Amino acid sequence: MTTTSPEAAAGPETIIADARERIDALDDRIIGLVQERMAVSAVVQQTRIASGGRRVHLSREMEILARYRDALGKPGTSLAMTLLELSRGRI
Ligand SMILES: C=C(O[C@@H]1C=C(C(=O)O)C=C[C@H]1O)C(=O)O
């Protein structure tokens, strides 16, 4: 008797449609997390500015860039730069 996995039983169109639904759900979560990150970053920046400091903290940003690069390779650096721009604006 041969066994067939549900994925193999479904046709390619169904597999792609299902996977795209999962991707859309993941993108919704990622966008929500990015918005949450922006809000938390704003708290740090506003608190620092209110106490006489600067908006931008470069050594902290270097740590974040390294973290994303270590996890995701070179494109991770670009992703982190985009997240930082979204969170603190362009410098
Ligand atoms: C949020 C901060 O302020 C700024 C924004 C950062 C961020 O969004 O991760 C990082 C460093 C700062 O330039 C912080 O210092 O942690």
From TrEMBL:
InterPro entries: Chorismate_II_sf, Chorismate_mutase_highGC-bac, CM_dom_sf, CM_II_prokaryot. GO terms for molecular function: chorismate mutase activity. The keyword Isomerase applies. Coiled coil: none annotated. Residues 10-91 form the Chorismate mutase domain. SUPFAM superfamilies: Chorismate mutase II (SSF48600). Its EC number is 5.4.99.5. Pfam families: CM_2 (PF01817). The keyword Glycoprotein does not apply. Keywords: Isomerase. It comes from the Bacteria. This is Intracellular chorismate mutase.
